[in-house]
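N-acetylglucosaminylphosphatidylinositol deacetylase, Hylia prasina. C-alpha cells?
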Amino acid sequence: SGNYYHQGEIRKKELEQSCCVLGIPASDVTVIDHRDLPDDPAVEWDTQLLATLVLKHIEAKNINLVVTFDAGGVSGHANHISLYSAVRYNVCKLLWVPPWAGAGSSWCCWCRVLVLESVNVCRKYISFLDVLISCLLPGDALFILTEEETEQAKRAMQCHRSQLLWFRRLYLLFSRYLVVNSLRLL
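C-alpha cells:
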C-alpha cells in the first residue's frame, strides 16, 4: 500500500487521483496491503506469494495483457524487481495453456506480458533524445507519447505529492519514460 514512510493512506489516495488523471476508474484499481509485502526498497518479496496474488487479480479481472518491470526494476527498487520475478514465475508456471488442456480447461487463460526495459542512467535522463536511440535498438514494442500524453503523464505523476522528492522532480523534467518506453515480450 506504499506505507514505507507510514504514508499508506495518503499514497492510496494519491494513486486514485493519478489513475483518475489517466482515465482509469477507481473500480479498476486494486491496492494490496499484505503484511508479508512491505513497501521497502530493500526488501525482496516472496515470489510465490506475490505470484499467487497477481494471478488471482489477472483471473478476477480477465486480464489478457500485463505490463510490468523488467529484472532491473527500472530504478533498481527491490519491490519492483520482486514484481517482475512474480510475473515471470506466473508466465513460466501458470499462465500458459498446455496443448492438451483445450478450451474450457481449468488452466488460466492465456495472457501476454510486456516488460518495461530498464536503461542506463544516461539514457534514462535524456528525455525525448532517447527516441532516436530507442527506434534504432531491437525490441518488441515501442511507445512514443505525444506531447499531450506526456503532459498527462506528468500530471498523473504530480498527484503523488508525498513521493515528489528532489530526484523525482528531476525525473519529471528529464526522464525518457515520460516520452518513450521500450518493452519486450516475456
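The mean pLDDT is 90.
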